[in-house]
Amino acid sequence: MSAPRKVGTGFRIRRANSQAGAPQSTETGFRIRRANSQAGAPQSTETGFRSRRANSQAGTSQSTETGFRSRRANSQAGAPQSTETGFRSGSDGADGDGPPFAVDVRGLTKRFGHKVAVNNIDIAIPTGEVWGFLGPNGSGKTTTIRMLCGLLEADEGEGTCLGYDFRQQSEQIKRETGYMTQKFSFWEDLSIRENLDFVARLYRLPDRRKLVEATLEDLGLFHRRHQMAGELSGGWKQRLALAACMLHAPKLLLLDEPTAGVDPKARRDFWDQIHQLSGRGITVLVSTHYMDEAERCDRIVYINVGHLIAKGTVAEIIENSGLITFTVAGDGARKLAEKLRGAPGVEFVAFFGAKLHVSGYDRSLLEAALASFAGDSDLIIGEAATSLEDVFIQLQQNRRGDTP
After folding, report:
1. Residues 173, 309: one domain?
2. Is the pLDDT of residue 127 over 70?
3. How many domains does the structure of the chain reveal?
């Protein structure tokens, strides 16, 4: 949850604690009462979610949502694939049985005046999985997250979040969801422990002190418990924010670019914590710009200008992209960039470290574009595995200038 706003400087937790009724958070609208335990969200039969095992069955049409060309051949005929998601629910795709969905929404749409920020998005996230939410700035990631947890009202769409109707039962969803905003929103003039204690009072959690102590230990914050939040580095601030999100034992975590501006080690430690939480059955949706973080997710979703462009495992998205990539290394590689851009068959050219990546969909045209440079002894030209970043650069380039 987003922490409530301070009322004046020098506000201390001890003063706030002296009052009988702690104020409700005005940023999130979360109710203070603890969430009642609920059964797992029922599985929707409309999502068309397909597991990887189901690929051995009925050969189906390509998802029109992603526009990817699938190179995988399915040998048998059977139930048609949903053109909305390209996935089928269930562990084996045969009987429809499978894990319940923590998030199962369809047609999610949000408009701000004449601008469509999110346009007809479908998302079905099985309970206990970690999903990455990717896209350029302004693509609609934060708007989607805020609609899912009930902080922003959707203009269109239907479905459930944690088994609740996400449009009619937003208060119940808030009680069982932890939302971590992009910007650190807790009190910098309070210690780590005081921040957590105040959040626990907002939720009126029983055995508050024991819970705070346990959370400090669990998130590796105990030895810093007396340190002022304003003195923490970016990585430790994010860990404090995560601890505050976990105090009320949420079933769903929505993390909006939680590692932006955090050093690599802190990012790695943060992701270790995310996977530990997932191992306990908590579902996580995390937005990120980092490709290495995307590869840590069970599945990823890519949106741009409000449209869902691709979703699946990293391997599926790379394979279905159809991209072929060659690399050019050597002292003269940089000089080739402008010569290759716009050549027949070359979709994009970009530097990754010291190597130039040249990607496209037609192998013969790519080879022809590079053939004239093959005799240069200063250059090393070879084919390489297409990376997730190659794919996303191309996805963003394909949608550049589009409007929802």
Report:
1. yes
2. yes
3. 2
Q: Residue 140 and residue 136: Cα distance in Å, rounded?
A: 9
Under a CB-based contact definition with an 8 Å cutoff, are residues 131 and 104 in contact? Answer: no
Q: Is 276 contained in some domain?
A: yes
Report d(CA 32, CA 29) in Å as an integer: 9
Pick from 303, 235, 296: nearest CA to 270: 235
Residues 182-217: pLDDT tens digits? 888 899 999 999 999 999 998 899 999 999 999 999
| The predicted structure's pLDDT at residue 394 | 85
pTM: 0.70
Q: Residues near 402 by Cβ (< 8 Å), separated by ≥ 6?
A: 304, 305, 307
pLDDT tens digit string along 146-172? 999 889 999 999 999 999 999 999 999
Q: Are residues 116 and 196 in the same domain?
A: yes
Residue 230 and residue 187: Cα distance in Å, rounded?
8
Residue 76: its pLDDT value, please? 37
Print the domain residue range for 350. 324-385
Question: For the stretch 283-312, what's the b/e string if a residue is b when 16 or more beta carbons lie within 10 angstroms of its beta carbon?
Answer: bbbbbbebbebbebbbbbbbbbbbbbbbbb
In a domain, 184, yes or no: yes
pLDDT exceeds cutoff 60 at 364: yes
> First-to-last CA distance in the chain?
30
